[in-house]
């Protein structure tokens, strides 16, 4: 199996930074968020399919959260439950810290966000006016508290598993399938008017940032030279 090295890590940092720039462009210079939400969000449709949407929202989230807790438990136990092989300390630290950090960081970023939920905006039947994307005034910070998606972070921890090794070949295919599945499960929040598509994208992006930072710290750290006594 291919392991992480400096070259593969830099390559994925470059890719992830590029995705972040594309996400910013999506929000700042295109109407895609509004177009998608206008097509998917309908209060009348929600009233008629409340049970379906509620199941779509709750069950996948809690199954994924329980799976995350299981992964943390197995990592702390020090044994791979599939083959009984010992879990190395860097892998243990990467999984435990990553799976705990992703939802916490998502929550912290969201609490400082000026982006409102679609259903709260005038354009979607709410009462708030949409703030300009680049409004960094102190009055705007924290006024929306809707970006990134907290619900999406229930699934975005899957990235930590995908980044255990540098994604390439079959691993890259698994990463793409996981991302598509995350959006399929997270899109229920667009149907509910709770999030724009960009909120899901940024939730995924922040999770990737956590994973790549931990790859650097856990798998590529350098020994710190010690001073020998003369």
Note down, in words, how this protein is organized.
With 230 residues, the protein is an all-alpha fold. It has one domain. It is built from ten helices and no strands. The radius of gyration is 20 Å and the shape is globular. Mean pLDDT is 89; it is low at 223-230.
Task: Give keywords.
mainly alpha, 10 helices, 230 residues, globular
Uncertain spans: 223-230
Number of helices: 10
Number of strands: 0
The rough form would be described as globular
Nearest-integer average pLDDT: 89
Q: Supply Rg.
A: 20 Å
Domain count, please report it: 1
Strand-pairing-aware structural class: mainly alpha
How would you spell out the order of helices and strands?
A: HHHHHHHHHH
- Distance N terminus to C terminus? 43 Å
Range of helix content: 55-70%
Percent range for β-strand residues: under 5%
Largest sheet: none
Compact overview of the structure:
With 230 residues, the protein is mostly helical. The chain has ten helices and no strands.
Task: Describe how the helices and strands are arranged.
Layout: H1 6-29, H2 32-40, H3 43-48, H4 50-77, H5 89-111, H6 153-156, H7 158-162, H8 170-186, H9 188-191, H10 197-219
Helix pairs in contact: 1-10, 4-5, 5-10
